[in-house]
From TrEMBL:
Domain of life: Eukaryota
Keyword vocabulary terms for this entry: Membrane
Gene Ontology biological process terms, A to Z: tRNA 5'-leader removal
Native organism taxonomy: Eukaryota, Viridiplantae, Streptophyta, Embryophyta, Tracheophyta
GO cellular component, one term: ribonuclease MRP complex
Organism field: Chenopodium quinoa
POPLD domain segment(s): 371-460
Residue ranges occupied by any POP1 C-terminal domain in the UniProt entry: 618-704
Name of the protein in question: POPLD domain-containing protein
Length: 715
């Protein structure tokens, strides 16, 4: 356990290996559960047009970027959406954090049963209840920044249109339990027993079955979790479930439901005569009536919708009372009397045996992630946590969750979001902890210092002598030009304050295409999915030689744009967090692809390992060009960094990295120009070197935006 973002959170298991192999086995063959209640939601309330306008200003991608059918499903609350929250959507800078947003289901907006109130009160209640509501979930490291951004946007919208938009923090009211793994759905089937309390038009009474109809009101225990395939990716389902600690199952719940229907048949018929024709009972009225008649068997009171959590939801029955009930039932079963204890009293109305939840299916576009999220009132966490663990789920912490994200190829916040302030703050905290550890080490055994805060905005990423004139340009050699030019650039870096600016990461295909048009390089060999451009496979297999028009002139003052890539070692190597991704020469690819076992491959001198990056007087880090001829010969220019390293025990280990988009396109041009069309690959060959290692390892970089239109999923 350690303190993060104001919470004491589990980090992971102790030990040298820390259990990564066991974790992956649990995930692939069983289930794991993570308490993500440190996430918080912000509730927006206002007109649909105003809320949609705010989302279009702040989210990338917004609902307007989705097809019409997806927009309708989002607005109806059937699915939830994911996006990046920005201060300013137009330029792509000022990213805050990835968010999950969901609309309140349309059928929940209406509120009936206010007939006894005055006409004016009824109109006011109906008007307020019909205002659409929206939840936006954020990570705690960026919650304050995101909340301020949303409040400012709502205030500006109110000033412009005169329409009041509510923006309320739900921090400390809702919890989030994440269940992941191949058997996550089977675990949910064990502990979640939904009840259906719906209103039917027909009048039917069936006392011989598990379903009972009383005056048009259907009361039945219903298992909505019969088939996982019925839930689409991103589905959001509102349920009311029985307390998981209860021993009631579908069969045992059937008889009480039927008896409840019989007991209430007469009272409901009398009540229906008083109401006008067609007026139906609300769920709250049904529950309160059933509670008063059948309190000892089923506490149905306060069974509100989860969206009304801000108004208060009754907590679960206390554990010791449940134990007393079970004890009393055991005695009754054996027809014994407990003379030593006081008589058992039924639970009062301040507790509930039913809990409203929101069930979310978590799945990425490639279906690599298998998991569900249970959103529930914060007071019910313990009541769900213990049955989940008893049902076979393994509890995991932050480190294990990061491993799962890396194994399935998803980014993890904030480690894999270098364009967010939360990333910078987390790296500062990590760097201060590392510095403190190094200070306690003896100087004789103290390792050389490496950067924790990586130089994402270094001008080395944008600097070059310029594009080659011919088709056989060796891009990697352009940065190893002359000592005078390198020295001039180094002097510029030391005195310039513009070296470190905001980081731009393209998270959607449209965003990447917009950047390429901005720098007049939309003909580069980058193929964002879903746009009207030549496909990657078509151009890759084209027999004609790649034209030099597929290059862009590299200048020292150009804007940098990163894209997320997944790295896989070509033959061997383990890539750690913070490793630098470099541009290989064509000879490097040939050497490392056909390297015999007794050959050490491409190495850098030991003296150069600690000086590849140097600390500037400002305290920032930047790349350093060596003056030693042997080190200069082994120098390879950087194109990006690894943010999440390999997970030990993974069958196909992959690392998450971010590389500069234009440099990747130049590398692909160089490699495609060198290879015949039949040997070209969709991936880009790169070199990866851990900052404490002397060896370059050959890797294949897969650009995520060439496989999917959006890269906003996170774990």
């Amino acid at each position: 356990m350690d303190k993060f973002w104001g919470f004491y959170l589990p980090v992971g298991l102790h030990g040298s290996g820390k259990g990564s192999r066991a974790l992956l086995k649990w995930y692939k063959q069983g289930s794991v559960v993570h308490d993500a209640s440190y996430y918080s939601a912000v509730q927006l309330e206002g007109s649909e047009e105003a809320l949609s306008s705010i989302l279009s200003m702040l989210l990338v991608p917004s609902m307007i970027d989705h097809p019409e059918d997806i927009c309708q499903r989002l607005l109806s609350g059937k699915i939830y959406g994911r996006a990046m929250l920005h201060h300013a959507r137009q330029d792509g800078f000022d990213a805050i954090c990835p968010v999950t947003y969901m609309w309140r289901p349309l059928h929940q907006h209406n509120n009936v049963g206010t007939k006894d109130k005055g006409a004016d009160e009824n109109m006011e209640t109906e008007s307020s209840s019909q205002l659409p509501q929206l939840w936006i979930w954020m990570h705690p490291s960026a919650f304050r920044e995101g909340l301020d951004c949303l409040k400012l946007a709502c205030q500006n919208m109110t000033n412009e249109t005169g329409i009041m938009i509510g923006c309320v923090s739900l921090d400390g009211q809702l919890a989030n339990l994440e269940v992941m793994g191949s058997r996550a759905f089977q675990l949910l089937q064990k502990i979640l027993h939904p009840i259906a309390l719906s209103v039917e038009d027909s009048v039917e009474l069936n006392t011989g079955s598990a379903t009972a109809y009383t005056n048009g009101c259907e009361i039945k225990p219903k298992n909505n979790l019969e088939n996982e395939d019925c839930f689409s990716s991103g589905a959001a389902v509102l349920l009311t479930v029985v307390d998981p600690r209860s021993s009631c199952h579908k069969k045992s719940l059937a008889a009480p439901a039927a008896n409840l229907a019989n007991d209430q048949c007469g009272s409901m018929e009398d009540k229906s005569e008083e109401n006008y024709a067609g007026n139906l009972l609300t769920k709250e009225e049904v529950l309160s009536t059933l509670q008063s008649k059948y309190d000892s068997n089923a506490s149905l009171s306060n069974c509100k919708d989860l969206w009304d959590a801000s108004n208060g939801i009754h907590p679960p029955v206390e554990e010791h009372k449940l134990c007393l009930e079970k004890h009393q039932k055991s005695l009754d079963f054996f027809r014994l009397k407990d003379t030593s204890s006081t008589k058992f009293a039924s639970v009062d109305g301040h507790f509930s045996r039913f809990c409203p939840i929101l069930l979310l299916r978590n799945a990425d576009e490639a279906d690599r992630l298998t998991g569900w999220s249970i959103i529930l009132p914060i007071s019910w966490v313990k009541a769900f946590w213990i049955p989940l663990i008893s049902g076979g789920a393994h509890a995991i912490g932050l480190r294990e969750k990061h491993w799962i994200a890396c194994d399935v190829g998803l980014p993890y916040f904030p480690s894999d979001f270098p364009d967010c302030n939360a990333y910078s703050r987390s790296m500062e905290i990590k760097a201060s902890a590392v510095d403190k550890t190094l200070e306690n080490c003896p100087s004789a055994t103290r390792p050389f210092e490496i950067p924790i805060q990586l130089p994402w905005n270094s001008k080395w990423f944008s600097f070059s002598r310029g594009a080659g004139e011919g088709n056989e340009m060796d891009f990697s050699s352009n940065l190893t030009c002359s000592a005078d030019l390198v020295g001039k650039l180094s002097d510029t870096l030391l005195v310039s304050n513009s070296v470190y600016s905001e980081v731009l990461v393209a998270r959607t295909s449209r965003m990447l295409t917009s950047f390429l048009k901005e720098i007049s390089s939309d003909n580069l060999l980058l193929f964002p999915k879903g746009l009207d451009r030549p496909t990657l496979s078509h151009l890759m297999m084209k027999e004609a030689k790649i034209s030099a028009s597929n290059l862009a002139t590299l200048t020292c003052d150009r804007r940098l744009c990163y894209v997320r890539v997944v790295l896989h070692a070509f033959k061997e190597g383990v890539f750690d967090e913070g490793a630098v991704v470099c541009a290989p020469c064509l000879s490097d690819i040939t050497l490392l692809k056909s390297r015999p076992e007794d050959n050490e491959g491409l190495q850098v001198p030991h003296a150069f390992v600690g000086s590849y990056v140097k600390k500037l007087p400002s305290g920032k880090w930047d790349f350093h060009m060596p003056m030693d001829p042997a080190a200069r010969e082994a120098y390879r220019p950087p194109v990006g960094f690894v943010t999440s390293g390999f997970v030990r025990g993974s069958k196909k280990p992959g690392a998450v990295a971010f590389c500069e988009a234009v440099l990747l396109a130049h590398l692909r041009f160089e490699q495609w120009s060198w290879m015949p069309s039949k040997k070209r690959r969709k991936e880009v060959f790169v070199l990866v070197r851990n900052l404490r290692s002397t060896a370059y390892r050959l890797a294949l970089a897969t650009i995520v935006l060439e496989r999917q239109e959006e890269d906003v999923e996170s774990l």
